């Protein structure tokens, strides 16, 4: 089955006094490549306006990019981030969005806590091995 390209969230009308950003502005601000920003756009996570061939990003686009980058940093998939952003657009009270976010965050906390226990155990074992090696070398 061929997946169709997701529809990007519709860009709202831009207020004349609203701050606008170029792709280069956002790339520099967040330390990511313009290619990454275009990738997020191709996945429907961002929907900049266009003036000719130039992308014009609004405050809303910038906020969405912050959410995308935070979600990636916290280990969420692009699909999960997309669902979150779509709920944000659909639910002005953000109740369902907050419920889903809470569920995802709790799941991530549990997963990371398990990994932390595993890391702590591995570090303990490695320290014991290191101490044994040091003791052997002192003989």
Question: Explain this structure to me?
Answer:
The structure is a single chain. 64% of the residues lie in helices and 7% in strands. It contains 5 helices and 3 strands, in the order βααββααα. The protein has helices spanning 23-30, 34-42, 59-73, 78-90, 95-138, and strands at residues 20-21, 49-51, 54-58. It has a 3-stranded antiparallel sheet with strand order 1-3-2. The chain folds into 2 domains: 18-75, Multidrug-efflux Transporter Regulator, Chain: A, Domain 2 (Orthogonal Bundle), CATH 1.10.1660; 91-139. By secondary structure, the chain is mainly α. Strand 2 and strand 3 (54-58) form a beta hairpin. It is elongated.
Give the helices and strands, then pairings:
Layout: E1 20-21, H1 23-30, H2 34-42, E2 49-51, E3 54-58, H3 59-73, H4 78-90, H5 95-138
Antiparallel strand pairs: 1-3, 2-3
Helix pairs in contact: 3-4, 4-5
CATH architectural designation of the largest domain: Orthogonal Bundle
User: How far do the termini sit from each other?
Assistant: 66 Å
| Largest sheet strand order | 1-3-2
SSE-based structural type: mainly alpha
Helix amount: 55-70%
Task: Using the coordinates above, name the CATH class of the largest domain.
Answer: Mainly Alpha
When the domains are counted, the total is 2
Order of helices and strands: EHHEEHHH
What is the 3D shape?
elongated
Mean pLDDT: 86
* Weakly predicted, low-confidence segments: 1-9
In short:
With 139 residues, the chain is mainly α. It contains five helices and three strands; from the N terminus they run βααββααα.
